[in-house]
Specification:
Strand content of chain A: 15-25%
Structural class of chain A: alpha/beta
Strand order of the largest sheet of chain A: 2-1-3-4
Shape of chain A: globular
Number of helices of chain A: 4
Oligomer: homodimer
Largest interface: A-B, 51 and 50 residues
Helix content of chain A: 40-55%
Chain lengths: 123, 123
């Protein structure tokens, strides 16, 4: 078994401040998984893109890469663009195992944390 | 003190399935706050827009409305468009108290829930 790595994959925006929550999540995950390489990647407007991040991880020795979309919801990007990009990466880096997680808006404890906050914030 | 209400405010997309996580959060919040009116509203592509949702809540008797942006991050939309829309609503509905919460990507327990899931998913 080779080295595992994670790509936190977000939409991207023109405003540099937009990336802050994703940098924050990366820092939290790095503290918990100190031996795992973790990269941010963006669909548009920001760098690196997904292919560049995966390439860097593989050059660094990763053989299992989990792509985690930090998108709230499944729209055209996640349904069509991202599976196509991931298929291209799998063809290009055939020796690595590349997996794609569901978006955060489908994850029960995250939906619960959002609801908890809305309830607490509105009491 | 009058009736409180919440608008869960999301970006919107062309794909109807995109709204599912936000409907899910609304259902969770409604169970916890059965006496609070809760509406979804969207910045673009989906209906209702924010003004329509606020108008409906005020017509239903709400006098304090908390707008909660279900956006991961602060980009141009949340920094410029949304404050302008909220200012317009405050001018139009001057008898109601309309507040705007931070985006979910700035909320500590939500960032923690996302990081927990990434860590658990990647072990």
């Amino acid at each position: 078994m080779g080295a595992r790595a994670i790509v936190l994959f977000a939409h991207g925006a023109r405003d540099p401040q937009w990336a802050e929550p994703f940098e924050n999540v990366r820092a939290r995950v790095e503290r918990r998984l100190p031996n795992t390489s973790i990269e941010l990647a963006f669909l548009e407007f920001m760098q690196p893109d997904l292919a560049t991040a995966v390439e860097k991880l593989i050059a660094g020795g990763a053989s299992e890469i989990d792509i985690v979309p930090l998108f709230m919801a499944q729209g055209g990007h996640l349904k069509q663009d991202v599976p196509r990009i991931v298929d291209d990466l799998r063809a290009r880096f055939a020796t690595a195992k590349i997996s794609l997680s569901p978006p955060i808006g489908e994850v029960e404890p995250i939906l619960q944390a959002i609801a908890d906050w809305v309830v607490g914030d509105s009491r």
